Amino acid sequence: MGMGMGGPASGLAPDAVVSPQVCFLSQGPVITARFSPDRKILAVQRTDTEIEFVNQEDGSQFWQKCKGTSRLGFGSETKLLGFFWCSNMSNLDIVFVTTGGLELYKLLGSKKGLQLKEVKKHSIKWYKYTA
């Protein structure tokens, strides 16, 4: 069983005590799990090709695979190395880091799907996320 955790909400005093949000994940192995900045969506990477999204408000789920084959051709499949959330005041976006480059997605207003906004093709061998 995996577990996703969210840290303290932004905008609080540095000395404010906030309990982390916890969500138990029991549907299989978990490579990475991260809450969206607004803590309303939990993204769970279980394989090297797909991310599962769980809406914390209504429990609905959807999945998104990374795109096609690598830019290098050779019929090799693009592998998902990881992902990270990014946001501004009006949009909530997620970036998939793949062996074929970066894929930028916008979370739809319904919070039940993603829309591909941009792909930056580049050969990527490894990825490390730091907060």
UniProtKB/TrEMBL annotation:
User: Source organism's superkingdom?
Assistant: Eukaryota
Q: Which residues form the Regulator of MON1-CCZ1 complex N-terminal domain?
A: 19-113
Biological process (GO) annotations held by this record are: regulation of autophagy
- Secretion signal: which residues? none
- Cellular component GO terms held in the UniProt record: late endosome membrane; lysosomal membrane; Mon1-Ccz1 complex
Q: Name one Pfam family in it.
A: RMC1_N
In Swiss-Prot or TrEMBL terms, this protein is called Regulator of MON1-CCZ1 complex N-terminal domain-containing protein
Organism whose genome encodes this protein: Chloropicon laureae
